[in-house]
Records
---
Amino acid sequence: MNTAKSRSPARYLGNALVLGVLVLLALPMEAVAHGERAQLASMRMRTLHWFDIEVSPVRVNVGDTIVITGKFIPSEFWPEQLPSVTDTAFLNVGAPGPKFIRVHSEVNGVPMIRSTAFEPGKLYEFKSVVRARVPGRYHIHPLLNVKDAGTLVGKGSWVEVEPSPTGEPFTNEITTLTGETVDLENVGLKSVIGWHLVWILVGVAFLAYWLAKPELFIPRYMRVRNLGPEQANTMITRRDFLAGGIFFTISMVLILAGYLWAEHKYPVTIPLQTGKVGVPGRPVPSGPLVVEVENANYELAGRSLTMRMKLANEGDSPIEIREFVTANIRFINGPAAAAGVVENEELVAGDSLHSSVSTIAPGQHVDVVLRAEDSLWETQRMTGLIHDPDSRFAGLLVYRDAEGKRYYQEVGGSILPKFF
Amino acid sequence: MANIALPAPRITDASGHYDLSILDNPRARSYYRRFDGILIIVLFSFLALGISIHYALTAGDWDYWIDWRDRRWWPLVTPLSLMMFIGGFVYPIWKAFRLPVIATAVTTLLCLVSWVSRYFNFGQFTDFPLSFTFPSTYIGLGVIFDSVLIMTRSLLISAIVGPFLFGALIWPLNWPLFAASKVPVEYSGTLVSVADLMGYQYIRTTTPEYLRIIEESTLRTFGGSVTPLTAVFSAFVAVIGYSLFLLLGAALYNFAGRYARRII
């Protein structure tokens, strides 16, 4: 009997469940998902082209500053159904909460305290300065919140924050226009707690008056029922009336006193500030290369994007194609080390961009087949391109002339999948 | 074995009157008192959970962040949200027990629950400073509301005076808490308040600046008297919101009351 019971399916299931939970508890994994790969592949390719992103330094102490710099170009292939950066957007920092404070941010030299708007096909250089606040290891990104569309995440970097060597707590002091220096970590907090305690005391006293009555629910219900709707109000006694009047008066006096105290202590105040700022876009340095995309294929098995395009070099220096950047991934023609990869940079695929023509001579018109091929298509969930409802792509073509001067321009168009 | 049977209330006549002599029975009074204790715990737990969820859904960000508490939308949205919840409970508790405590109970419980949430969720777990996320207070308004009901002993008059004062006084009540965050600062050549600056500095990845629903400049300013005008408008909105939910509470109570009376 016992043997049969011990071998019952329910017992096996129970044991398996307990074992599973224990295994999960014993193998805690670091949460590293930040949503970069969650959005549709075509949306990541056709919204914002982030590039040249650098986070420096990547090892700091609490209180030290970190600078995030980079560039972005709003895509001219921006999906029509998606609310655009031409309306309202905000340059933000992707971090797990306020582990840092943002002390400065700008786009093309304009401070970005408020929201703004951007123009498709223009170049924007951004800079965000943050101060480390809480020790830990964090993955931080530049990101752009687009009103009614969502968040566009730039390339992230891991940053290590050590405690302050002096052991002093983090402070965030600023000087107001009234000349006061305050620490934003606790500004006004003593008054807040003090006034809350006062009101909690009043509220608890009021409730205590009523809940301490010898008769509450069942006895009062019986009396209300017996008295009937006309006479039930007599249950509110003269003493209750008096108590109500006292509580009413105390509350009104406290509200008035608090208001006058605040007006006296903070005579100069302003409403919350909002409104957009304008930021002029810069022309994209596309150089002498004229690009016309003829067609593009995505090969599922080969994890590659192949673009056929007509290129015309209208300059006087030979042009060499160096990179294709899309959805934060850099597909590099040649070794990654030669492409200016910065410390801790992610999503770089060296030797992954193959061009049928190595150099385009001045005045030359040429048909080029460009293939971006790497497993990052898979790991970054870009293979979802074939399941997206609008099969279009876009990316940034990066090239340079004989003097090493770098140019780039956006390319894009329809894309056809190849399943076999 | 001790006799633990509860002396049941008895209805003595056809009109549904109770035999109140049972209230002179010490054992019955003792049982009723214990029942009161249980009911207070159950009712207050329900109110605390209910108001925290309701308030988070209807006025959440306006109370989470100091840079959302402006002088136009915050004084309008929060009283309406609270009045809706309070309105649904006042009628049943008043009609059945003549207990004018709901507004004070709801506002006090909301305050306590909010502090727990702000300290642990916002402070300890996500490292936001309390100076940026402290809750507003509404207890004074709850006490005033209940005191009006006590002194008038009328659901109708209190439905006009109580919510009116609730909406009108919400700004002066909270001004001692907010004023420090409305002091002006110059930052990167831009005029901001301390609250705006905190909203900028303490990074919220998915709460960008433009997401705030706060006062914006308009041609319809009535001479710039935003605060008093909002107070009056908020008072009227609170009266309407409260009255509608008072009626809803009455309808539900009368519907459910037919069955509850049979049980009690």
Note: The two ends of chain B are 27 Å apart (CA to CA).
---
Amino acid sequence: MSRGGRLRDALVLAALAAYAVPFVWQLLTSLKPEAELLRVPPLLPARLTLDHYRVVLEQSLIPRALLNSLGVAGLTTLSALLLGLPAAYALARLPVPGRSALLLGIVASTAFPQIATVSPLYLMMRALGLRDTWTALVLAHTSFALPLVIWLLAGFVREIPPALEESAAVDGASRGQALRFILLPLLAPGVASAGLLAFLFSWNEFLFAYTFTATGASRTVPVALALFPGVFEVPWGDIAAASMLASLPPVLIVVGLQRYLVRGLLAGAVKD
Amino acid sequence: MTRRERADRRRGLLLMAPTLATLAVLTVYPGAWVLWLSLQYRVPAFGVDRFAGASHYAFLAGDPRFWSAARTTALFTVASVGLELVLGVAVALALVGQRRGRRLAFSLLLLAWAMPAVVTARLFEWLYHPAAGLLNVLLGGLDLNWLGDPALALPAVVLADVWRTLPFVAVLAYARLLGIPTELYEAAQVDGAGRLATFTRVTLPLLRGVLLIAVLFRTLDALRAFDLMFVLTGGGPAGTTETLTVYAYRGLFQMLQLGFGSAVGVVVFALVMLVAWAYLRLLRAGEAAA
């Protein structure tokens, strides 16, 4: 390797390390003893402790919020996929009347600002007695996740040659069988990508969750983290630990399912 | 139309029906309702509920707080998207030639992008802490109050946003760069093009399409941004980071003026649609000219 190449490599790695600082610093903070938090330098703690995690897990709303978030994001993903898969198939393969207008509407609704629909949705949830329930959040989140999922899946269906389903039909398979045994297995990675993005959207969503929830019954992780209580002073170590816990599913997805995540990210942007 | 075609159309509509019903109830109906709300005086706390006509909009036209929020939104959007674009492309170029740590780099970038914005806000709030914040320590023991100083707060919010979203631009640009055949670069070299010329004449034109899309997506997101400033600064200090979305939220749920807050929300809505429409027109005009 040339010297210039090695130098360049090292520079890029240094820039990368700098980029990681906000995250690493928070991780370090979450493991620092309380007494050392406000005493920097030194940057590195004398010893590491799990005290903050213990406080967060035993005395805060975070464990309950993690459960709420998992439930809401899981159900949102499920309903967006169940509704979105047939719709995406129809838009990609069947002569639906007004198809281009429908597609345009679906793309436009992915650009909808939440701040514009939050007041009517709030009144709607209140009228239906759904305030502070998972249902309110699943409904509100689905209204945003569904167009995204349809947009992605319609693109993925179009990538699969229709000839495959047709030849199955020639071989005597019914349309339903062709879909189940030919199309669906080929579409599985696309479904995973779309599902992951829907899940992340719901996991991260703040405005609706902040507005429609009132107690631990439905508060999600971003809300619990934003409202993390401090009595006399800000509990920086506990907040850091809570932040780490809130990032856990995104971390697992990025590490374990990166391929699907990147595919979804690219497909959402590049296709038109 | 053959019988089969008719059957397919029917089947298509049937498959679409649940989605159309859901979106009609959860998107279209609220979209129309918010327009109606914005024409009402609606203060549930005092039982006020009457028609206001366009008076909220008339009030906004002369409302200094509204114009300040509009200016902040514009500044935030231009600064964030501009920086994300430049830095995102730089990161993509660096990664393409990188041998070591590429997978780690990718994971890190995706993580920053995939985390809740509220977590980002908490991360940066701690970095910006006046006494114990890492930023001041690294700057040699300064005691700048990043989030409390009206001159620094907006740049501080922009920095956090850039950290969070430059990965989006970087990943898109990186994927496009991988698709450029190396022969193109070799040809440029043979023609005696230097590094800069290769970048401006070969790389940049090929990136153009994907960057235009990235700018559109990021601009729409920046106009709608809420979580980051709401948690990081709450719109303060002295309103210097109050964007239109934060103003709308305060109108709706803190002043409890549903009609007035909805009017500000409608303005954000109109702004987003206007930008998207203008952008697509420009894009099409550009394509027609090319």
Note: The longest helix of chain B spans residues 3-37.
---
Amino acid sequence: MIVFLQSVLSGVLIGGVYALVGIGLTIIFGVMRVINFAHGELVMIGMYLTWIIFTGLAIDPFVSILISIPAMFAVGALIQKTLINRVLGALPENQILLTVGLGLVLSNLVMLFFTSDYRILTTSYSSSTLRLAGLSVSTPLAISFAITSAITALLYWFLLKTDTGQGIRATAQDRDAAQLMGINVKRMSLLAFGIGAALAGTAGALISPTYYIFPQVGGVFTLKAFVIVVLGGMGSVLGATLGGVIIGVTESLAAVYISAGMKELFVYVLFLIVLLFRPAGLLGRSRV
Amino acid sequence: MKTFLTAAIVLGLGLPSAARAEGVKIGIINSMTGPEAPIGESLTNGIKLAQDDLAKKNIKVELIWEDDTGKPQVAMSAIEKLATRDNVAGVVGPYTSASANAVAKQAQRYKVPLLVPVAAKEDITRQGYEWVFRLNAPANVYAQVLLDAVTQLGKPKTMALIYENTDFGTSTANTAKEYADKKGIKVVADESYSKGSPDYRSTLTKVKALSPDLVFMVSYVADAILLMRQAREMGLKPQAFLGGGAGFTTAQFASEKDISNQVLTSTQWTDDVPWPGAKDFATRYKAKFNKEPPYHAACAYAAMMIMAEVASKQGGDREKVRSALASGSWNGIMGDVKFESYEGYANQNRHPMLVQQIQDGKYVTVFPDKFAGGKKASYPFPGWK
């Protein structure tokens, strides 16, 4: 029983970070109908940013998100303005080529400047734990989960309660109708990509005290985020949150009860089963 | 700009053509970029130190460097190029087991003497290839020497295996299982993982529930640190943590004192071993590269020295180089080297592996006794601080 609870707990904690990556991707998709295949690379940039801030300025990784959130927002907005905006009306395959290419450029640029060495952040609490009714919880993971929850809650409030948030949702629901209603959809697109990039960067920052950093790390997250988003329903923020946690828990349980080497298999089998019965994802609305 | 151009021309064109005029050509295949680059760099450094020493000995060789980026298919095209276009007398490398295994086949096909410095997969020298030589001890010894050491230290009954599902990981783990059977240790968990996963906690939870006496891990650099950190989080407390070389024998790992203390690892070489020149190599390595020398560097150095001496003596004739390698014997920083055929191996050096323990951030050789020089391992693992 302890083993089961422990693995569910580990899964939920790591799933929270996955969810953050997924939410970023789903917002971008919802507003622009562009799948950002460079999303994992944005997570990677967030990690390197944290690493630079930590080693250069000696600022704690969790505090550093105060710097990396606005920085990543700016990076995202810049990417949207200069690149994504130009292919908004283009064929989907052109959009995919653009974002895949962008990802390659980013990871290779980072490799050029930082080499492919693995970097590990060692903080005073890197390997410390909290005890909770016989279960052990990694301190950095627990902190990052708390921050993830806070950010997600803030994001929900922003999307549901503020005018700008509603504007973003309206644009996601129907771009043309939103424009007719006087919503500045260009500005919403810029905001959406900025928020998406900021979330990806934050996830990178939050995971870096417990993970390691290298230029090709993005690929893992792009794929995961994509699965999470499709599983939860393309464009659904709640779906992505749910999807992230489901993937985290599935991985964790599969690793404990079957084999760590095969956990990905179970994630994808689950993914296929969900798509078989709910082609639009768990919380997605079918567009047919 | 002008000086930059001149420098580029001198570096890019001038030197190689000047060097081409003299010395035998030797190919190097190593992982200089890509995910294996951190350890690949140690091999590069070892070879660079060998280059200095060869120059001192007035042995002229021209090295042709090829980067396999850690991928077997790139390594294969590298050896094709070296064998056919550059016409090298011999090749030293590649670093990883997967690359070395792929390259061995090609070396046999193109009839190029290949000296593998540090790749561990047994198969590399088990396929009867007369052109393939290996300096280091194969994967089974990694596990054997560790289990020999712990059975001398205590009486462990059960063991859990956690390893990366790559050539090196699986072959080391498989031999560990076989050898544990012989030693009467029961393998209670057999967990492979694919590397790069951010979370090994679930695997470790499962292992903890079985409370094994020994936890044997085979991992490359970053995963070794991650696994030990998470083992500490989970409060995993066996009699001993055993690390099968690679990621557990790096200075970066040792420097993480919180998690590395008292871990036992097997290694091909240490700087406090009484082999001729070992200490001197370590001192010079530290002076030149400002880093602790890992065994990878020592293996690469020794392999480079042997290959260069043989190749230049034989005037670059591949067949002569091959037979000289097969019949010769050497003594250097890796101890006695002789390529023999035994127990299904061909051209395999019977290299005795060592066990070292990390004591307060430093590697100390503790086994076998004749190489340990009186230093003792502390056992069992006292628990986390």
Note: Chain A touches chain B through 38 residues (CB under 8 Å).
